[in-house]
Write a structure and sequence with these properties.
alpha/beta, Nucleotidyltransferase, domain 5, 6-stranded mixed β-sheet, 38% helix, 8-stranded mixed β-sheet, 398 residues
Length: 398
């Protein structure tokens, strides 16, 4: 069985074609700058061969046609015909409380994805567009939706509710939904495998740290709490998102700066975080370089990020009454050696100790805790595409 995994963004399409017999990636690629000057496709084969196609890609339909043409190309392709693709697994960011697992797409599912688009306006419309394009281009293939929010549907009511008038929850479904669920689920399960234990017997804190970042408390294999909320804005300091702030700041800044609700939302989502504090960049690598060169605001941004992650780890240890393992994943979590160590420093009271030499590694499954650490600490590269493919296969098999 061959499954195509699609992550359709507002101006991009990320894809992987996976052979589920051995879960090998036959090809992976990225179509970017859709509808923008300089659009292109980049693809890498299992052999390591890479190539690039530069051409005008006005919309996602043309982008997906290019993906299919590339995968079936006589010289550079990996399949002879599109009919070899049995199913397409789609990443969808927000499924609200409608979905607690992956589902085969039908008209009702598409309506629900559209209904929840107000909570993920940059993602759900693009995700839905990807589904519709693939339905048109691959009518024989089964379409499956995997939701970033689904893993977090196991959170208890007292954890996911906000202390607002209850009528707002009843009318508008205002509650904590979280994100990055596919990633948190994958790395937690991988950590349990590394420990040789049943995940249902473990308490794990997973740190998905990238330009978007979240921490999740995984208790007995289920999401118990997570740092992102109604939207991905809540929680950690991120590339351009502010994370947790006093809600009263919102009307205060709007009044003082004369901002509309849309402008205030843009400020918190696109102008804050690393970018807003440092004034340099939203990329942690740029911030780290500037901080090492003595830039005080870059140092402040880094310190704020480290402190916020550390605080969430501590709160989740308390919430779960202990922790067996901490996992770092995603761009920063897998590669930022110094930040990982700083986050874990001074947590020895909780039994968390990192070995500096073991920690000196990037993007590789590694146990980095010291020998006398009571808590295991892992680097585990995330693989959301494989989770989507596995869920898609499971639905196909059933």
């Amino acid at each position: 069985m061959k499954i195509l995994v699609i992550n359709s963004g507002s101006s991009s399409i990320k894809y992987q074609l996976i052979n589920m017999e051995d879960e090998s990636v036959l090809a992976k690629g990225l179509v970017e700058r859709i509808g923008i000057e300089g659009s292109r496709l980049e693809q890498e084969l299992s052999t390591g061969e890479e190539f690039e196609i530069k051409q005008d890609i006005p919309d996602h339909g043309v982008g997906m046609e290019l993906v299919i043409d590339t995968l079936t190309d006589e010289d550079k392709g990996v399949i002879s015909d599109v009919s070899e693709i049995n199913a397409v697994g789609h990443r969808v960011v927000q499924g609200g409380d409608s979905f607690d697992k992956s589902v085969i797409v039908d008209e009702k599912v598409k309506k629900e994805i559209d209904r929840w688009a107000s909570l993920a306006p940059l993602h759900n419309p693009a995700n839905l567009m990807g589904i519709k394009v693939c339905e048109k281009l691959m009518p024989e293939a089964t379409q499956v939706a995997t939701f970033d929010s689904a893993f977090h549907q196991s959170m208890p009511e007292d954890v996911y509710m906000y202390a607002l008038p209850y009528e707002l929850y009843e009318k508008h479904s205002i509650r904590r939904y979280g994100a990055h669920g596919t990633s948190h689920k994958f790395v937690a399960e991988q950590a349990a495998k590394e420990m040789g234990k049943d995940i249902e017997d473990l308490k794990i804190i997973t740190c998905h740290l990238g330009n978007g970042a979240s921490v999740t408390a995984v208790k007995n294999g289920k999401s118990y709490d997570t740092s992102m909320g109604l939207t991905p804005l809540e929680g950690l300091v991120m590339g351009t998102r502010c994370g947790d702030i006093d809600p009263a700041i919102v009307p205060f800044v709007m009044e003082k700066e004369g901002l509309s609700p849309q402008e205030m939302d843009h400020l918190m989502n696109k102008e804050s975080g690393f970018l807003g504090v440092s004034g340099i960049s939203s990329d942690s690598r740029d911030i780290g370089e500037a901080a090492s060169n003595g830039n005080k605001r870059a140092q402040l941004a880094t310190n704020m990020f480290v402190y916020r992650v550390k605080k969430y780890i501590g709160s989740y240890v308390a919430a779960m009454n202990g922790v067996d393992a901490i996992v770092f994943t995603a761009g920063i979590g897998e590669n930022a050696i110094d930040l990982r160590e700083r986050i874990c420093n001074d947590l020895d009271y909780l039994g968390i100790k990192v070995d500096s030499e073991r920690n000196n590694v990037r993007a590789k499954i590694t146990e980095i805790n010291a020998d006398d650490s009571k808590v295991k600490v892992f680097i585990i590269p995330t693989n959301e595409e494989l989770v989507i493919a596995r869920d898609t296969k499971l639905l196909m098999d059933n």
